[in-house]
Amino acid sequence: EDQVTQSPEALRLQEGESSSLNCSYTVSGLRGLFWYRQDPGKGPEFLFTLYSAGEEKEKERLKATLTKKESFLHITAPKPEDSATYLCAVQAPDDKIIFGKGTRLHILP
Amino acid sequence: DVKVTQSSRYLVKRTGEKVFLECVQDMDHENMFWYRQDPGLGLRLIYFSYDVKMKEKGDIPEGYSVSREKKERFSLILESASTNQTSMYLCASSFRPGQGRYEQYFGPGTRLTVT
Q1: Smallest Cβ distance to B109: which of A32, A34, A43?
Q2: Tens-of-pLDDT digits for all 115 residues of chain B?
Q3: Are A14 and A4 in contact, with CB atoms under 8 Å apart?
Q4: Which domain, by its residues, includes A64?
Q5: Are B106 and A87 in contact (CB < 8 Å)?
Q6: Is residue A45 within 8 angstroms of chain B, CB to CB?
Q7: A51 and chain B in contact, CB less than 8 A
Q8: pLDDT by residue (tens digit) across B32-61?
Q9: What CATH architecture is B4-98?
């Protein structure tokens, strides 16, 4: 069964303390991997799409990378405003989109 | 910028009522989706549509129906609301697969409470 697993479920960091969020998947023939940010009570906001192993995308303090089995969302020197839930989703060969359950990130000032 | 709007941010309905949730997108996307999001369960797909008047069941369609009469508008209908349908409802849209961009754009969500 195609699955997407995100870890950790929750992460608390001090402001400026860099870290990485993980998204592992079991989908064969991945067509795309997506990262979203979701603030409490709001809809997810699209961040990145990655299509092939070795690809990287950056936006401000965020960098997403992709291997054949997982993706990482690296957060460099985070600020309190980076606190949110980060969702990962994959596009399977049949174009079905499978979401992970997210990582809740809390940055302490 | 892509914009997806939903008719209500908060909604309170009584058990047995018929509930309409509407979603409009302005990006000429072919695909539109309805999800519900519950703590610990993540996003679950209810229905999606890849064209006007076309619909496909998602993972949890029971108790719901949908309507897509115009390309930009996708409605979710709860025929007879029940308390277990209390949830956050999210609409999303995207281009058709094969157009090179398949990321989804989400609306702000509707927090539905059924009492």
Answers
A1: A43
A2: 769 999 999 999 999 999 999 999 999 999 999 999 999 899 999 999 999 989 999 999 999 999 999 999 999 999 999 999 999 999 999 988 766 678 999 999 999 999 9
A3: no
A4: 4-108
A5: no
A6: yes
A7: no
A8: 999 999 998 999 999 999 999 899 999 999
A9: Sandwich (2.60)
Chain B contact present for A97, CB below 8 A = yes
Residue A27 sits in a domain whose CATH number is: 2.60.40.10
Any chain B CB within 8 A of the CB of A100?
Answer: yes
What's the number of domains chain A is made of? 1
**Chain B CB contacts of A91 below 8 Å:** 97, 102
What are the pLDDT digits (tens) for A79-97?
A: 999 999 999 999 988 888 9
Q: How many residues does chain A have?
A: 109
